[in-house]
Amino acid sequence: MSLKVLKFGGSSVGSAEALRRAAAIVHDELPAGGLVVVSALRGTTDRILDACAAATRGDLPVALALRQAMEDRHHEVATELGLLEAVRPTWNPLFDRLDQLLTGMAMLGEGTARGRDAALAVGETLSANLAAHCFQGSFRDVREVMKTDARFGKARPLLEALRTAAAPWRVALEEGALWVTQGFLGADPDGTTTTLGRGGSDTSATLLGEALGADEVQIWTDVDGVLTADPSLVPEARPIPQMSLGEAEALSAFGAKVLHADSLAPGGRAGFRLVVANTLRPGASRTVILPQPPPRPAGTITSVAYKEGIHLLRFPASAGLEPPLEAARSLEEAGALRFGLISSPAGTLLAVRPETHAAAEVLGTLAASGLACESGWAVVALVGEGLRTDPVAALRYLATLGQEPVGGLLTGSSTVSIAFLVPEARLAEIIPRLHQHCVQER
Ligand code: ADP
Ligand code: ASP
Ligand code: MG
Fold first, then answer.
1. Which of 129, 315, 346, 349 has its CA 20 to 30 A from that of 3?
2. What is the DSSP string of 300-311?
3. Helix H or strand E segment including 111
């Protein structure tokens, strides 16, 4: 029997209307059961994090006001769906728990990553419970199966434990169950709640797809698939009908928010079909991501990606390799994303994005030790299978930037992408220009 996992992002479950649309898709796609992963309602995760920040600085009234606004919004959506009474028994203890967590943070004047993960779980669980009723499925807590390490804020999956725990889920789903579960959350070996990093529900869906031996994972979002560039900077960006896993991996690694950076590896290991589609327009074009690359003419660039907020650490040649390696290790261990670690006889450059409080602290300590540390950079990547056969094409495209300042090339082992550093402030000019010359005019 073919098994599918569907994932709906925050905007796809952000309102009663969106949830109704998602329910229609679930019924079309999963007539004989399957697994649905849903994110927190749009804006909820940010609101909970703001409430935690307010509580941590001792401002409990602000924290509780944010939490109240969140409750009001949830009640509004559930009422519009006629489901408030159905969800109330599960929702009330969740809101109480959030109150307790915020009060605890305010009393201590301290917020740990562990405490924040516990608070964030409330948003995801509220939404999965509501969606389960709305889709006429049953809620199952993802923490039964999503086993992770204890790196709170950016936990890594424990694949073997996940696979073992998912075996009974597979049996039930094959027998026709329709289960709805949370994205983004996991549980460490002690059973304590963890999260997979912002935007991590995509990764929840693909990890579950892998563990369950699914044939297809569908990511339902608010755009017509993976586009040739971020539509907020490039309104004329078009959907990419088919792309290779390598292209999708590079695109997400270099910042395209449509897929979480860790979400492609499970498909690479397990070989399921990965589809990205638009909840607002289910019949519109969509992207199919295939393990084997579709043929592309030499030099073809499929998409442009970027990530702002990059910090550069410059190590003098005299330092050797060990200090930059050690810095990269401790930053990554604290949850930072590494965009480059490049060494030449003239010194070593490390490009990172802190991502977590812990990583920002490590960065602060490194800067305080006298190391040259710059902020205000962005990484830009050109991605396409065409680079495999014509890698030099990327340099020709780079030349189209003319007088724009380029801070350095970030070469890695990827044969389908080339990345470079630009000042963050120039992104709004650079991305449309590259898209026009490298993707659109071809
Ligand atoms: P969800 O809530 O469904 O997870 P996200 O906001 O995380 O949705 O991701 C979808 C958004 O990603 C789109 O609305 C779009 O603004 C942004 N995005 C950035 N780059 C791309 C790209 N190359 N293709 C599609 N969307 C992109
Ligand atoms: N709700 C989480 C976030 O906003 C996870 C996700 O949406 O993927 O980061
Ligand atoms: Mg997302």
1. 129
2. ---EEEEEEEEE
3. none
Nearest Cα to 380, choosing from 315, 441, 438, 442?
438
Candidates 203, 223, 303: which one to mutate for ligand 1, based on the most atoms within 8 Å of Cβ? 223
C-alpha dist (Å) from residue 273 to 190, 216, 245, 264: 33, 5, 10, 11
Separation of alpha carbons 50 and 41, rounded Å: 15
Read off the pLDDT band of 276 (50, 70, 90).
Answer: very high
Q: 348: CA distance to ligand 1 center in Å?
A: 33
From the CA of 230, how far away is ligand 1's center (Å)? 7
d(CA 272, CA 87): 34
In the chain, the domains with their CATH numbers are 4-221 (3.40.1160.10), 303-440 (3.30.2130.10)
* Model pTM score: 0.94
Cα separation, 118 vs 127, in Å, equals 15
Q: Which pLDDT tens digit goes with each residue over 18-46? A: 999 999 999 999 999 999 999 999 999 99
CB 303 less than 6 A from any atom of ligand 1 = yes
For 96-134, give one letter per residue: b (16+ CB within 10 A) or e.
eebbebbeebbeeeebbbebbbbbbbbbbbbbbbbbbbb
- Residue 42 Cα: closest atom of ligand 1: 2
| 84: number of Cβ within 10 Å | 16
Q: Is the CB of 287 under 6 A from ligand 1?
A: no
Residues flanking ion ligand 3, Cβ below 5 Å:
9, 199
* DSSP designation for 14: S
Say what the pLDDT of residue 407 is: 83
Task: Tell me, using a 6 A CB cutoff, whether residue 201 lines ligand 2.
Answer: yes
Residue 442: per-residue pLDDT: 67
Is 366 within 8 Å of 327 (Cβ atoms)? yes
Whether 10 is in the pocket of ligand 1, judged by its Cβ within 6 Å, is yes
